[in-house]
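Journal club prep, shared notes

We agreed each person brings one worked example of a sequence with its structure written out as tokens. Mine is Sulfhydryl oxidase. I'm keeping it raw so we can talk through how to read the token line rather than staring at a rendered picture. Sequence first:
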Amino acid sequence: MLDTFNSPEKELNPPTFSMPVYAADVISSLQNLLVHDVRRKKVIKGAELDALKEFLTVVSKYLDLGQHYNSEIAWLKRKVDEKSEIQRQEWLDLLAEMTLSTDNVHYIACHGSKPHLRGYPCGLWIMFHAMTVNRYIQGEKPGRSSSIKWYIYLLFPFIADGTAPIAHALNRFVPRFFSCGFCAFHFAKMTSNVRLAGEDVYPDRPSDEPPFPLEVPDPSTLPAAPKSAREEVLWLNTAHNIVNKRLSGNPSEDPAAPKIVFPSPEQCRACWSEAARQKVAVDKFAATPDKTEELLAYLVHHYRPSSWRWDGVCVSFEDIFHVNLGVDTFSTTDMILVGVICVCCSAALAVLVALICCRWRRSRRGHLPLPTNA
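Then the structure, token by token:
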């Protein structure tokens, strides 16, 4: 067990610094999700099974919990992929074989002032953010065969790949499995513009009464649907701040950790323009961080695996080394590819400059006066 976390005295005001991401918060919420929320279904089949498979796919690909836990998630994904339906007992039997679902892990940064506050949803949000950031860091590099695509994305990050697998997986999974029906319907509505053609807007939850008329929302009222890993990081932060604003003052809000826009001007001053800071000083939800590049850099640094703390989690140093260095390590092949791309770009630039110079010389000659005979 790594160093234990000693909680400071509770404060009524939120901290002006950013609490680090604790692996314990993510693991605790993932345990709750698998052991409690998914098991609520007597039988998982059809659209629900598809949503579960899609969710486990993005979790296994983009959530880095170290080699041990990652291998367990990959194993669970393979088992679920083999099923055409899953009975509750089958699901429990699968979980019983995983230490991920049985390890005794407790919330740290997400620990609420009361047992029913924060905790599970707090850790879920962190997990979702971490997945979007990890996808951005990976640059959608599923294997060496697509390294060229990754380096092009690295050199030209503004290029959108047209996909948002995490956003779509969350839109399919959260409304169907999250135990809070009120939250599930709101999440389905807020993310409805990321669904594919022909997919339902709202989940079938007969035991939960919808908190509003189930109408298709106007897309202009929703966060713009992401089309790249970069946009997915920013989209989720926007969505999270929308939820924070809606739940501010709600009985579910922890008075020891009031809802705010994240990151606040105190947490990331560079993320806010002066005008936005002035607005939020009057009303804490009157503005959001409006300096996009600075915000992206902050979110990536905050949620990336190498920034995590592993207090309260039984892991080996090998696991931590893998999480901190694995996705950022470059091989000789990587460096050669970067060199080749740089040389090609330099050569193309040199050719372009040469062509411009030749054209300029020809143009200049055409304007020289003709020689006259003495």
